[in-house]
Design brief:
The complex is a heterodimer of chains A (99) and B (287).
Chain A (H helix, E strand, L loop, with lengths): L19 E9 L2 E2 L4 E5 L5 E6 L5 E6 L2 E9 L2 E9 L4 E8 L2
Parallel strand pairs in A: 1-8
Antiparallel strand pairs in A: 1-2, 1-5, 3-4, 3-6, 6-7
Chain B lengths: L2 H4 E2 L1 H6 L6 E7 L2 H6 L6 E4 L15 H10 L7 E5 L5 H12 L4 E5 L2 H7 L26 E2 L1 H7 L4 E4 L3 H5 L23 E2 L15 H10 L8 E4 L5 H12 L5 E4 L2 H5 L22
Parallel strand pairs in B: 1-5, 2-3, 2-4, 4-5, 6-10, 7-8, 7-9, 9-10
Helix pairs in contact in B: 5-10
Classes of the chains: A mainly beta (99), B alpha/beta (287).
Chain lengths: 99, 287
């Protein structure tokens, strides 16, 4: 298993104290965007992972502690958002697409 | 090989949607994707259940591949267009199988499912019915597949290209960040391997970069394209993407995909492992 499911991985059965979770929602005009793509870029801007958003616009990554950039792509628009991940914590962010 | 033999764009697919000799194949790991919708007329191949042996860790043999393609209604003389999610990772992996088993005309849809969706092109939920065929495979052509002993022998000798993300290469992550990190393998990379993430070969929308950009990418990272090359990742699908770039788009002759990849290599007893951001020496070690 290496592929991404919509919304990102489930936290069921996962020891969350070992994970640095980044999760959230992609919105446009305040409404969730399903079927958008969220890319996780590391501190140097290098691609690390990508998931399509769920039916309710949500996404999740298991990252490593540090600074990351989220880039959301949707038909006709995109947006970047900076985020910091910490071990054993969940960073919850909204990425608002402006176009 | 060249780009036009190996790759088609979305416009080409739209003009061939009703061509009976063109078969679209969606390859995903996320089975829900195809069930939700897919390009009209596309059949599904499941990366895990259709392309992997269900008992031992290996891919399907020639007879299993023949049975699979026959049941999907794919004939030897069909033009097969493969696409999928995850920036065509699993589509590239399936493309590599089709080549391994000698299919004549197989190509990838540039950008895969993501580009198609971002373009807001038509997707349908109806599953097509194709008549069963009598598919005959050849091979397997192991000239494009590397095994663990090939990788160990290549340390410090051939090009080794680790296409995982920098954090996986260095040993800071054990899996892509959309997966849980608890894994059994040792972290790190094969000593002397260059880290050229698959993603550097693709644009944000999943399409491949131009031949000139791709050539500059690998040569800029010190890959001597006149030497033999082995690409690997974690389970061999992202490295199939890089194998496709080197072997199919750039026409580099001796390129193998190591499908055992890090989940095998990182579990081997006694092989050298290198930690950190640099390729390291053949003996491996901490950064």
């Amino acid at each position: 298993m290496c592929g991404a499911v919509a919304g990102g991985p489930s936290i069921e059965g996962i020891d969350m104290t070992k994970e640095a979770v980044i999760q959230g929602i992609v919105t446009r005009g305040g409404e969730p965007v399903s079927g958008a793509y969220v890319r996780l870029l590391d501190g140097t801007g290098e691609f690390t992972a990508e998931v399509p958003t769920s039916a309710t616009g949500q996404f999740r990554f298991f990252a490593a502690p540090g600074s990351w950039t989220l880039r959301a792509l949707a038909p006709g628009g995109q947006a970047d958002r900076q985020v910091v991940a910490e071990q054993g914590a969940v960073a919850d962010v909204e990425v608002a697409i402006t176009a | 090989m060249s780009r036009t033999d190996a790759l088609v764009d979305a416009d080409w697919v739209e003009t061939h949607l009703d061509d009976p000799k063109v078969v679209l194949v969606e390859v995903d790991e996320d089975t829900a994707a195809y069930e939700k919708n897919h390009i009209r007329g596309a059949v599904r191949i499941d990366w895990k259940t259709d392309l992997q042996d269900q008992v031992r860790r290996d891919f399907v043999n020639k007879e299993q591949f023949e049975a699979l393609l026959s049941s999907k209604g794919i004939a030897n003389d069909d033009t097969v267009i493969i696409y999928g999610g995850n920036n065509n990772w699993f589509a590239s992996y399936a493309y590599w199988y089709f080549k391994l088993y000698g299919h004549g005309d197989v190509r990838l849809l540039d950008g895969g499912r993501k580009k198609w969706e971002l373009d807001s092109r038509e997707l349908v939920s109806e599953v097509p019915q194709r008549a069963v065929t009598q598919y005959k495979a050849s091979g397997p052509d192991t000239a494009i597949r590397a095994f663990r002993d090939d990788v160990v022998s290549a340390i410090g000798v051939q090009n080794l290209v680790d296409v995982r993300s920098p954090d996986e290469y260095a040993g800071r992550l054990l899996a892509p960040a959309h997966l849980p990190q608890e894994q059994s393998q040792r972290p790190g990379h094969v000593p002397t391997a260059a880290n050229i993430p698959w993603s550097q070969a693709a644009n944000d929308d999943g399409t491949f970069k131009s031949d000139d950009e791709l050539k500059a990418l690998y040569e800029g990272k010190g890959v001597d394209l006149s030497k033999d090359t082995i690409a690997y990742c974690r389970i061999g699908e992202r490295s199939a993407h890089t194998w496709f770039v080197l072997h199919e788009l750039l026409g580099v002759s001796n390129v193998k995909n190591y499908d055992g990849s890090w989940t095998e290599y990182g579990s081997l007893v006694g092989v050298p492992v290198q930690l950190g951001d640099n390729p390291g020496t053949p003996l491996g070690g901490a950064a």
